[in-house]
Specification:
Length: 184
């Protein structure tokens, strides 16, 4: 018996594109301003993301949340992101495919040589526009961390950083934690 192909009739190209990328076998992809990109984090990025996960895990559990790199949809745009780390309420994660940025508590992007400008500029603007309350940029090329908060349609109104790796970075409520950045 052969597998039946997925069929999807859509009058809306955005919906059709987002549907299609969710059904690519063996590959995770994201869409950034209409460009499909494979998501294949290297070990350096994974190491930084894992350090963050370990440090925030006790608080995440107390908050009834989980950490992961699940899909984030930005409806009405040609964007579908797969962040390096996102903190989301456990109940939302159980029942949803993609979440919206305003359903997160924290989104983390760790740059690589191929995506640094995307994370610094495009994703920062889009996460703010779609209400992600906290956006942590771990910039491995500039060896710094910056926390953006208080999102609005024109961007984040508060910026804490850049802080050089090795300097503690304060994550505000609900985390209330000094993040150790020496392992990034």
């Amino acid at each position: 018996m052969s597998a039946q192909p997925h069929t999807y009739a859509a009058d809306d190209p955005e919906k059709a594109l987002k549907y299609a990328i969710q059904h690519i076998r063996g590959e995770r992809v994201q869409i950034v301003e209409g460009v499909i990109e494979p998501v294949s984090p290297g070990w350096g990025r994974e190491s930084a993301a894992n350090s963050i996960r370990r440090q925030i895990e006790p608080i995440v559990i107390k908050l009834g949340c989980i950490t992961g790199s699940g899909d984030l949809d930005l409806p009405g745009t040609p964007n579908w992101y797969v962040p390096d780390v996102a903190v989301v309420p456990e109940e939302l994660a159980k029942n949803a495919g993609a979440l919206l940025p305003d359903q997160t508590l924290l989104v983390v992007e760790v740059t690589s040589d191929s995506n640094g400008d995307t994370d610094r500029v495009v994703k920062r603007r889009r996460y703010a526009e779609f209400g992600a309350p906290l956006y942590l940029l771990v910039d491995r090329q500039q060896r710094s961390c910056t926390l953006f908060s208080d999102p609005g349609e024109l961007g984040y109104t508060k910026t804490d950083g850049p802080h050089p790796f090795g300097s503690p970075l304060r994550l505000p409520e609900p985390f209330n934690l000094d993040l150790d950045t020496s392992e990034f």
